[in-house]
Predict the structure of DUF6082 family protein.
Amino acid sequence: MRRRWLNVLLINLALLLGVTVVAAGVVLPVSYLLHIDAAELHRWSEIGQAVTPVGIFFSGIAFIAIAVTLFLQSRDLRNQREELAIAREEQIRSGEIALRELHTDLIRMAIDDPELRQVWPEITVGVDITKKDHYCNLILNLQKVAYETHTIELAELRGALRYLMASRDMYSFWAKARTARVAVTSGDEAEDFFTAEVDSAFSAASPPQPRTLRPHRLLPKLFWRPRRRR
């Protein structure tokens, strides 16, 4: 803001200087012509021819001042356009975040209430969406929002997706939900990019095995019996 005011001040000073030089160049010769005779006029004419380079010098200065003024104005306008573009992007991003928060609230309600969960369509033909599916969807949306808001970089997004695909539930969710998700979001550049990243992590992952208890830790507890006192 301070720099902008300094630019405006310089522009105004340059304009004032230019107007003063032009006014002086018109008013002073006219006033002299009204009060001198022919001989004096001839003498001043010779003086004028002698100082012509000085006039050219000041004309050059005026031209440079005008050029600098136009340059400062164009730079100030460019900065203003950039600030407006940034503000517009922030408004768009804020609106998207608000919509995603609403989407999150709706999914949270479906997770908490089985009756509301029945409102959502089947994730695939013959397969109802579950609480885990909704939860997995929230986790993936969180990664997308974090990347789009520049909270994480692309390398961090890819690392997070590879880590999530190690979960059997996440792997199963994407296997079931991908087709339906693409049918809804296809054509959106940001959505297509995120879908491609999730697909890449999904393809690189091996189908996780079901979680089971390890026998060498479980058996001693199952077959442990208290010793009888002798």
Summary: Residues 213-230 have pLDDT under 50 and may be disordered.
